[in-house]
């Protein structure tokens, strides 16, 4: 997915907003350092390979329930089945979005090449 850096953006805020690690964005764009981004810059944001947030979970305050299995539906029950189905649909939509983004990028490059040819022909 492509993203244009906005004034005030940091690599951390962009990564956090898109649910990917800063390192993934750095590697995907060949950036030398996290602070080397600027407003107007186009970045490729790789989508997470696995659903969910890629950062390790932080310490959370203890909740009212003890850890482990709690009340509610267990594995194989309707809620778990719905969650699994929705995760699969989300994965499929992310793959379709990546293909669409790639196609839009390819078409944009083609338009740019055609515009360049027109400029060269008009200059003769």
Descriptive tags:
124 residues, mainly alpha, two-stranded antiparallel ribbon, LysM peptidoglycan-binding domain-containing protein, coiled coil, LysM, LysM_dom_sf
Please summarize what this structure is.
The chain is mainly alpha-helical.
Commentary on this structure:
Residues 51-58 and 60-74 have low confidence and may be disordered. It is flat, with a radius of gyration of 21 Å. With 124 residues, the chain is mainly alpha-helical. It folds into two domains: 1-49, Roll (Membrane-bound Lytic Murein Transglycosylase D, Chain A), CATH 3.10.350.10; 75-124. Strands 1-2 form a two-stranded antiparallel sheet. The protein has helices at 11-18, 22-29, 78-122, and strands at residues 2-4, 42-44.
Arrangement of strands in the largest sheet: 1-2
Structural class, from secondary structure content?
A: mainly alpha
Helicity, as a percent range: 40-55%
> Which spans have pLDDT < 50 for at least 5 consecutive residues?
51-58, 60-74
Number of domains: 2
Distance between the termini: 38 Å
Classify the beta-strand content into a percent band.
Answer: under 5%
The whole-angstrom Rg is: 21 Å
Largest sheet geometry: 2 strands, antiparallel
Overall pLDDT: 79
List the helices and strands and how they pair.
Blueprint: E1 2-4, H1 11-18, H2 22-29, E2 42-44, H3 78-122
Antiparallel strand pairs: 1-2
Keywords: Coiled coil
Region (Disordered): 55-80
Coiled coil: 83-124
């Amino acid at each position: 997915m492509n993203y244009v850096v906005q004034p005030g953006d940091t690599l951390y805020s962009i990564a956090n907003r898109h649910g990917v690690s800063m390192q993934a964005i750095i590697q995907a764009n060949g950036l030398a350092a996290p602070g080397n981004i600027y407003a107007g810059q186009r970045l490729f944001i790789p989508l997470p390979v696995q659903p969910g947030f890629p950062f390790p979970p932080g310490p959370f305050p203890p909740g009212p329930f003890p850890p482990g299995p709690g009340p509610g539906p267990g594995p194989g029950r309707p809620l778990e089945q719905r969650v699994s189905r929705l995760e699969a649909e989300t994965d499929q939509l992310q793959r379709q979005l990546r293909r669409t983004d790639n196609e839009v990028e390819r078409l944009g490059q083609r338009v740019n090449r055609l515009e360049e040819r027109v400029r060269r022909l008009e200059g003769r």
